[in-house]
Design a protein that fits this description.
By secondary structure, the chain is mainly β. Helix content is about 15%, strand content about 55%. Strands 1, 2, 3, 4, 5, 6, 7, 8, 9 and 10 form a ten-stranded mixed beta sheet that branches.
Length: about 160
């Protein structure tokens, strides 16, 4: 099943933290049918290959943590209390104290979604990594070097 979202963003923050935002009017399209999202009641990081090690640092109140184990390379939080789930118009931050994978290029995030009418499902989501400050500095120096070389050729 191909799943797509509007109004849902998952952003990787520095320090093994992930920000999940559910905008008002967010929808999910599953098998060609679009439905409003009622809430998100689970957030996970996993890997498609290799191993995953993670610890719980912090999550919203009422969310319980489950670490990887038993051939399930997933670690994250779940909340079945509908009053404490991530509702449209809100943002939550999930903080892994540690998060290491033997194949970091194969990491993914996943969510448990409840659509209007209480139909629930799990879906993988893509996340937008935030570049480390050192990476941004190297990129900036490289761009400055290219600009300087171009100016020198014109002179």
């Amino acid at each position: 099943h191909v799943v797509s979202f509007t109004g849902l963003t998952v952003t990787e923050l520095a320090g093994n933290r992930f920000q999940v935002t559910l905008a008002p009017g967010a929808t999910v399209t599953q098998s060609g049918v679009t439905s409003p999202i009622r809430d998100i009641f689970g957030f996970y990081v996993g890997t498609t290959t290799g191993t995953l090690a993670a610890t719980n640092q912090a999550a919203p109140s009422g969310w319980s943590y489950a670490g990887p184990g038993n051939n399930k390379p997933l670690a994250g939080w779940e909340n079945n209390n509908k009053r404490q789930a991530l509702l449209p118009g809100n943002t939550y931050v999930f903080d892994y104290g540690t998060l290491t994978a033997s194949s970091p290029q194969n990491l993914f995030t996943g969510i448990h979604v409840r659509k209007v009418g209480d139909d629930t499902f799990y879906a993988r989501t893509n996340f937008a990594p935030v570049p480390e400050p050192a990476s941004m500095a190297v990129l900036g120096l490289g761009l400055a070097g290219i600009a300087r070389r171009r100016r020198a050729k014109k002179a």
